Design the sequence.
């Protein structure tokens, strides 16, 4: 892949058509694949699963919901202090999800968006070689200790949710031609775990508890489709949710994901802080991603962009660029600025 730009996922617009005709039209020549912007309920990432899927599940109980705004319900948390929390009901040993392939909503959204994508590509609005990108949160990130704080509950829900995610992936793969498809797993809890930032989790077994999901999921991505991973420092309550000293944990996790994917990995996206010191980027020398394209999340703070790129190239001479995360939690008023920053980065900074 010679393309040097990656769109991580969410874009603060109202419809997928707006996403494709604005970001897709301008940036398409520089992309391998184009996400649908994760518009509507998906704009706040995993919250949509919590209030659309978990709230109605008969084997789960709500422990906490986001604080209302002036007495009016709120579906998305304000920050990390008032997110959704659940517990598995007593006597339930394994939470399961019905209506496989459709229950989580990712396949339904992907198929609806793909129709718009394909139509606009046929009309020449999008480049003919562009693939449709489906970005899905990893099961570990959907079911972290902050959402399921009761001891033992994650072990009860994670296998069933992983099966449900696998069924969604199977539906997507059956309905969208592999040559048109790219799948990306979005991983933020895994990154916190890699840096020891989740107090409920021991350091022992860190890699194993994060890669098991991908041994199930990633081999299901068709051979002719593309597979990528987005690693994230988190944006809930503002970016970054945590600021590590260097990229060592990200490199460890990227290498582990690739080694346990059971198939070719086409790209890995690693975020970068607003740092231009050599020490922060030095761990990139240890990347072992078997030929996968590496994208660094550099497109932010344009005044320091070139300095950060130069520092990263000392450790990793060749890489593409993207933002540190999606933009769904940004106000729509930032759309033009974000787009222009990407256009400038695609042109070499």
Sequence:
């Amino acid at each position: 892949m010679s393309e040097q730009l990656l769109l991580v996922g969410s874009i603060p617009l109202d419809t997928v058509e707006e996403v494709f005709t604005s970001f897709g039209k301008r940036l398409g020549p520089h992309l391998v694949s184009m996400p649908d912007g994760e518009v509507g309920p998906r704009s706040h990432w995993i919250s949509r699963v919590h209030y659309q899927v978990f709230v109605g599940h008969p084997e789960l109980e709500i422990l906490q919901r986001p604080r209302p705004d002036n007495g009016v319900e709120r579906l998305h948390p304000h920050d990390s202090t008032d997110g959704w929390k659940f517990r598995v009901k007593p006597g339930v040993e394994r939470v399961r999800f019905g209506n496989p392939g459709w229950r989580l909503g990712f396949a339904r959204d992907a198929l609806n968006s793909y129709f718009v994508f394909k139509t606009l590509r046929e009309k020449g609005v999008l480049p003919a070689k562009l693939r449709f990108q489906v970005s899905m949160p990893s099961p570990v990130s959907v079911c972290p200790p902050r959402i399921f704080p009761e001891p033992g509950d994650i072990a009860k829900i994670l296998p069933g949710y992983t099966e449900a995610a696998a069924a969604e992936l199977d539906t997507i793969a059956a309905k969208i031609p592999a040559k048109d498809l790219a799948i990306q797993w979005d991983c933020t809890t895994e990154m916190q775990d890699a840096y020891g930032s989740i107090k409920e989790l021991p350091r022992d077994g860190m890699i194993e508890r994060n890669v098991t999901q991908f041994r199930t999921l990633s081999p299901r991505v068709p051979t002719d489709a593309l597979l990528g991973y987005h690693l994230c420092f988190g944006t809930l309550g503002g970016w970054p949710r945590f600021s590590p000293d260097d990229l060592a944990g990200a490199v460890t996790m990227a290498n582990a994901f690739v080694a346990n994917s059971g198939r070719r990995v086409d790209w890995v996206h690693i975020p970068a802080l607003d740092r231009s010191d050599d020490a922060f980027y030095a761990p990139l020398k240890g990347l072992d991603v078997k030929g996968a394209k590496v994208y660094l999340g550099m497109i932010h703070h344009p005044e320091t962009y070139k300095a950060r790129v130069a520092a990263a190239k000392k450790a990793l001479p060749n890489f593409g660029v993207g933002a540190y995360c999606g933009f769904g939690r940004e106000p729509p008023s930032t759309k033009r600025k974000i787009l222009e920053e990407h256009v400038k980065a695609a042109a070499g900074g």
Remarks:
- The chain has one domain: 5-346.
- The longest strand covers residues 131-137.
